[in-house]
Structures are given as structure tokens and as C-alpha cells.
Amino acid sequence: MPSSRRQFLVMTAAAAGLAACSAPDQNNNAGTTSGPVPGKPSSPQTVNVLDVAGNLQLTQPMIDDFTAKNGDVISKVTYTKATAPELVGKVKAQQGAGRVDIDLVLTGVDGLAAGIDQGLWVDLLPAYANRLTGMANYLPGAAAMQKLAGNAGVTVTYYPSGPLIEYLPKNVATPPADAQALLAWAQANPGGFQYARPSNSGPGRTFLMGLPYLLGDTDPKDPVNGWNKTWDYLKQLDKYVTLYPSSTSETMKNLANGSAKMIASTTGWDINPRVLGTVPKEAKVGTLEGFHWITDAHYAVVPKGVSTDKQAAVLALIGFMLTPEQQAKAYDKGYFYPGPAVKDVPLSMAPENSRQAIEEFGRAEYDQLIAGNPLEVPLEAKALVAAFDKWDREVGGNKVKK
Questions:
Q1: Minimal CB count within 10 Å: which of 11, 44, 145, 198?
Q2: Considering the entire predicted model, what is its pTM?
Q3: Pairing of strands 293-301, 154-162
């Protein structure tokens, strides 16, 4: 992805036409797919949403609320889910056929970057920043994540993520305090530490991307040439890892049943599985000395080929989602903790079931940890793919549970 695409442009109220595909919209109402986007669609629109990041758990209540209150803009919303690797193929096939049936995509960094790299998304910024005024109120970490989106994506949810270590006190009396102590613990407890294959797991890749900061590597953003200490550490750790689960959920189940004594985790993966009862409530988390948060976010993007009427509806929807009242719903039950991307959204604003869940299963130390440790954006797409490939080839690919 060209570096110029990643520059976060200062938001202006300038209106400009969007260069989109010229194929007619056959999905709802026929309409143009190029030219300026009206302030309001000419008629109520059916909006088809594709989620490839699990984002609807956080944002579907926002979308449903907008639809209920703005029937003159959106008459109906349909929801579809897919995996991030499927995204580019789905969108390209529809664009190639001249029939784009996906109006709004909710994606993580992976799908966002892949689509930018192949020119799949409409540039919503800076042309329509005046309709997305909530972006001016981003938290610093969310603003940093927005830089990865260039002109195409709009950050809708955000969290600091990890890396954290998680354990049950009955199995680990004294958790390791730094990376070398974790290595020593793993040596003394073969098979006791687990993290899922990084390319399949948020906590797995957060652990992977966090190690260069913990170990003082030369360039934490360059996994090929700047991670000598990290790759050596992972190879040493691998000697004491029996298997790498293929999903984060498996590590949580293994922690609960005792086949793993300690796992890589994140704030959301700590809180939400305990809310759901997958992991015992008494589980604890820890950090390793000198850690940096690896942040994460979800984005809204619009495929080229979507009619201007539908773009108008989607822009109105995203603007609504970025209001503090709606962002408070992103607390959910700790799935992406905290979740809101904008400032001044305390837990007290969240729905009652969210407040109850986080008050019972959240951790008082998270506020201090978030405020007191550096925030780092994840690797860019090509670097992340290179890191995954190197891990698979040189560290743990032959031990991944199929």
C-alpha cells in the first residue's frame, strides 16, 4: 500500500465528487454511482452490511437504532458475515460483474489494507468529513489507527488490545514479570504456555507484535530485518510449547480445562470469555515489564460501485455511529474493551447490561495500564503478512493444531 495513502488528512468540509465505478446499482433503487453524494438519499434505502471482523457484536445496536429513527434514510438493513480473507474476492467479483450488492463493510486492519491496496474502496475523506464530525473527537489511539485508513476507511471502534498473559491463580501462583521470566517459566512447565497461531488469532498476533518492544529489538515495525531478538526468543520459547491452537477460542478452553496454565490474551479476550462463562471468573491477567500496547480498531468502508443514494445513507449512518451516545454501546460485554473510538464516553453511558458485565468482570487496573503505557499501531499489511509467513516457516507452523 503506498505510504501516501496512509497519511491522515486534516478533515475539512470541502465537498468533492467521488470517483466510483460506473455500473448501475441493481441492488435497491437504480441510481448513479458517480458524482457528488447528496445530503440525503432520494428515497429510503436497503443497506447490505458485510462484517468480516466480528464488529456487529459492537455496532449492530447502533445500526438498528439509526434505522428505527431514520426510516426516510434507511428502510432496511441486511447483515452478512464472512472471514477477512474472503473479503477482497467477494468485492472484486461483484465489481467485475457490475453489480455491487455490498454497501457497507465492517473490517479490521487486514481487510481494510487489502482493499486499499487493490483500489476497492470509495474515498470518503476528506470530501465528506463534514458529515463525520465525530472523527474530530477520536481518542489519541483511535486517531493513530485512523492514519492506517488513508481516505477510505472510518474508524468506528477501538481498543488497546494487549499483549497480556492470562492464568488461573490455582495453577500459577507467581506469574512471570518479564519476557525472560516467561521463558524460564515455560522451560520449567513444558506445554504450560500457549498462544494461538498469530495469523488466526488477535491475541496471538498481539503477542507477536508486542515482543519487539519487550525485548528492545532494533526496529519493531520491520519483522524481517529488525526483529532478531524476537525471532530468537520465539524459537527458544517454541522448545517448550507442545502445540499452537488454530484459534483464540481454543486457548481459552484449554486455560479453563487446565491443559494450558498460561496463555496470551488481550483486554477483550480476558473480559468477554469470563462474562460468557468460557473461562472461570477468577482468572487473572498480567503484563510483562516494559510492554507497549498494540492497538486495534474496526473500520467502515464502502465498496466502489455503490450508488450515491446508498453512499448518502451510509454516510449518515456512520456519522450517527460516531456520536458519544451510540459509541457507548461499543462497550458491549467487554468483547473489544473498552470499545469506543471517541472521547468522553464513560462506562456510565453504556447500556445497563454492558455496565453490569464490565463492573462485575472488568478490571480496575486497566484504566491505569492504558494511561501508563505506550500505544503502538500494529504492523502495516505487508509487514504483518511477512511476520506471519516467517513465524509459520521458522517458529511454529509444524505444531499448529489442525
A1: 11
A2: 0.84
A3: antiparallel
